[in-house]
Write a structure and sequence with these properties.
Length: about 800
């Protein structure tokens, strides 16, 4: 029963054969325990009574004739722990759609009444499978006949519509080709291609010369392939929702929201489910009144007035301030309306049941609500459980939209208007919002996700305390000094000549000085900058021929303004030089220390320099599959993490005396003992957590830099100390051991603070450790523990 399957590159010849399986049985009989040897010897004795099954099968009639025997043989390949009705697996002819054996669930979904061949309706899926066949074929040829190792296993994710529910499903297909022999037909072709060893299986198609050097029609594939299928629908839908939400400029993008609405239906497993978002954005401390974001045309037909929206906001914020929990209403009736008046809108539009989730930022400010409603079906806790992993993604999307809105409003105000007074600021804000609404230029961005499962994250940050305040102070001091210099020139000019312009300039300079001394608004800063760099420079240059005795004063004034921004830059230069020096030295230290960390165990590392420095480490078996990973390496990296932050703090402290402007740093570690999954965001060229189940880690990491001690206004992070945020007691116990080690080296002081931290939105139970750094200890952290077992730690610094 030989078949030829059309391939993308050439023809693939294959036939069913149990020879590779029998060979494996013989290996087990020779090497395994008595029980296994006896079991497989019985199988071998049984199949030996059927000579036609001991060689490649060239006829479909033979498969039919020995159908019962073949089913018994192949059933031994799957453990009894697999459920015939719940797991999807099958055995197929190599590179062919013919099914030799399969589970009941597989037959139900993929055979559709055809008991012999897989029915692949989707053209795209069929093409993908065809390409995978080519990759798999060349992987077998290269490994078996040419000794070329090809990394990876042929697996892929495919989308199809479930015939029963008509909802989207995503299945991960994995092909196991261990029971296939490659037989060359005629003389073995010469392989001229080089640099193939170690390539990934999916890179094979990038080597087009293989099709001419090794034509597939020159080989025959005998055996069978094991196909395993896993339902990954929830993971794929969550990732699609995340990609849509985090890569749009605004949640009001209706093209994207239409897709989100469809994705939420599939996630909940319910047709005609309606999803809506009601944002409550705040811009310049003013509530932005926007319509509900939904694809439901009926709701859009009756927009709410400003007064109605404000009352809606007060009602909703009052309810969720008292209890920020998700609300599930199975039946919207008069009784539920008395408790939740805002549901009256849904009641009027004939919705039967609803799930309402508050979307809040870290300071408990309500950004909006997520509404999931149905007109005829009763929503249950089962539906809530399905959509709950997506709720944090909507929070992040609203936070991103809020940040974009803040930026866009500020940009429009600066571009379109002059200086804004406090009393009328709201009107300019509203005008900017209206402008942005009319502009409506949001576009969707695609991204590809590369996933690493079961990795351990290590996060640390070194933050320059009060950097924004110091920067603003520097700007303010420079402006005040330059205004005083300008005033000195005008005062001397008034003493030598009488011109009305001098009085007018003196008035404006004093007015600007008063503004800078108080609160400097962005528009005022722009006006003052223009006055000093354009108008004042022109005036003093024109005064030189008019009042020659002022030439020396004018030259001195202009010389002091010789900077890249044509302004006095003394204090800002001091700030920027100090900031740059600290960041540069810290970055060099961390980069150098990373060499030692990589020698502990290879891992993914990324650092970011802003007002300070923070870094992420992701380590685990899936990132470094060739080196066995265990907790031994993880503990070493955590000691590296703690000791490196001590070094960073000591370095920062040692720089203080040489800095133009002393700036102090705080050091922070986030302890995370549970592995997560990460995915690569193509557009941003960085890794991020993958899936809503892991999003909690990212939320905590984003919010802890300014976390306060419970029932106080004191921040956990303080100059001169290392702070560690943790959730579980075992995490604290682990780091306490590492702290004790550094205390024994005299690098940390004896006192350790164990602190309860304030609750963050959606996150409770965070606690902290804080220990002061001993700056007087001069010896660097060094030395090595000689590990006698994996329980002891090898410290590499």
């Amino acid at each position: 029963m030989e078949t030829q399957a059309a391939g993308t590159i050439s023809t693939i010849k294959s036939s069913v054969s149990f020879v590779p399986l029998i060979r494996k049985w013989n290996e087990i009989i020779k090497s395994e325990k008595q029980g296994s040897r006896q079991q497989y010897q019985q199988l071998l004795d049984h199949i030996s009574t059927f000579p036609e099954l001991l060689q490649p099968i060239t006829s479909a009639e033979i498969l039919k004739k020995y159908e019962v025997e073949i089913e018994g043989i192949l059933s031994t390949l799957f453990p009894v722990t697999l459920s015939d009705n719940e797991d999807m697996y099958a055995i197929m002819q190599p590179f062919n759609q013919r099914i030799l054996y399969s589970s009941s669930l597989f037959r139900q979904i993929f055979l559709r009444g055809n008991e012999e061949f897989v029915d692949v309706v989707d053209v795209g899926t069929a093409e993908d499978i065809k390409r995978e066949k080519i990759c798999g074929a060349y992987q077998l040829i290269l490994s078996q006949l040419y000794g070329v190792h090809v990394e990876g296993q042929v697996s892929s994710i495919h989308h199809f519509v479930c015939p029963d529910t008509k909802l989207d499903k995503y299945m991960k297909l994995t092909l196991d080709a261990r029971f296939i022999d490659v037989i060359p037909e005629g003389e073995l072709p010469e392989l001229k291609s080089t640099a193939l060893n170690g390539i990934d299986v999916y890179e094979i198609l990038n080597h087009a010369e293989l099709s001419s050097q090794l034509p597939l029609e020159k080989f025959r594939f005998e055996g069978f392939v094991i196909l395993r299928i896993k339902d990954v629908t929830e993971r794929e839908l969550i990732n699609k929702i995340k990609n849509n939400l985090l890569n749009i400029h605004s949640v009001g993008d209706m093209k994207i929201f239409t897709e989100l609405d469809y994705l939420m239906q599939n996630l909940a497993g319910l047709h005609q489910l309606h999803t809506a978002i009601k944002p409550f954005f705040m811009v310049n401390n003013h509530l932005v009144l926007t319509e509900i974001i939904t694809t439901n045309t009926t709701a859009k037909k009756y927009p709410l007035s400003d007064e109605q929206q404000y009352e809606l906001y007060k009602n909703i914020s009052g309810i969720f301030k008292a209890s920020p929990e998700v609300i599930l209403i199975s039946d919207i009736n008069r009784v539920t309306l008395e408790r939740y008046p805002f549901l009256y809108i849904l009641y009027e539009h004939n919705f039967k049941s609803v799930i309402v989730a508050p979307l809040c930022r870290e300071d408990n400010e309500l950004l909006g609500i997520l509404i999931v409603a149905h007109r005829t079906e009763t929503l249950t806790h089962q539906h809530l459980a399905r959509i709950k992993p997506a709720i944090p993604l909507f929070v992040l999307a609203l936070e991103s939209s809020q940040e974009n809105l803040d930026h866009d409003v500020d940009k429009v105000i600066k571009e379109k208007f002059t200086a804004v007074q406090d009393a009328v600021e709201w009107r300019f804000t509203k005008a900017a919002l209206n402008h942005l609404t009319r502009k409506n230029k949001h576009q969707e961005k695609e991204m590809e996700s590369i996933v690493f499962d079961e990795v351990y994250p290590l996060y640390g940050s070194i933050d320059i305390r009060n950097s924004s305040i110091e920067r603003n102070n520097a700007i303010q001091l420079d402006l005040l000094e330059q205004l005083q210099m300008a005033l000195d020139v005008i005062t001397k000019a008034k003493a030598r000549a009488t011109f009305p312009l001098f009085d007018e300039l003196e008035f404006r300079i004093k007015k600007f000085t008063d503004s800078v001394s108080k609160i400097l608004f962005a528009e005022e800063e722009t006006t003052i900058h223009e006055f000093l760099t354009v108008e004042m420079v022109a005036v003093v240059n024109q005064l030189k021929p008019i009042i020659p005795s002022l030439a020396e004063d004018i030259d001195h004034y202009l010389e002091l303004l010789n900077s890249p921004v044509k302004m006095l830059y003394k204090h800002r230069r001091e700030y920027e030089e100090s900031m740059t020096r600290i960041n540069t030295e810290l970055a060099m230290l961390i980069d150098e220390e990373q060499k030692a960390a990589q020698s502990i165990y290879p891992h993914y590392f990324e650092r970011f320099v802003t007002d300070g420095l923070d870094y992420n480490i992701y380590v685990g078996q899936s990132i470094t599959p060739r080196i066995p990973f265990n907790e031994f390496y993880l503990k070493n990296l955590k000691i590296w993490q703690l000791s490196t932050l001590v070094k960073a703090a000591r370095l920062s402290q040692s720089l203080q005396s040489s800095l133009p402007l002393p700036l102090h740093t705080t050091q922070l570690i986030l302890a995370q003992s549970i592995p997560i999954s990460i995915s690569f965001k193509t557009a941003e060229r960085k890794f991020d957590v993958d899936g809503a189940y892991n999003i909690r880690y990212e939320i905590i990491k984003k919010r802890i830099d300014k976390v306060r001690i419970k029932d106080s206004t004191e921040r956990l992070t303080q100059p001169g100390a290392i702070a560690i945020v943790y959730s579980q007691t075992r995490e604290a116990q682990e780091y306490l051991g590492y702290i004790e080690f550094l205390q024994s080296k005299g690098l940390l002081q004896d006192k350790i603070e164990k602190l309860e931290l304030e609750e963050l939105q959606g996150i409770s139970g965070l606690r902290g450790l804080r220990v002061l750094i001993n700056y007087e200890k001069r010896e660097p952290v060094q030395g090595v523990f000689q590990a006698k077992s994996e329980e002891e730690l090898l410290v590499i610094t």
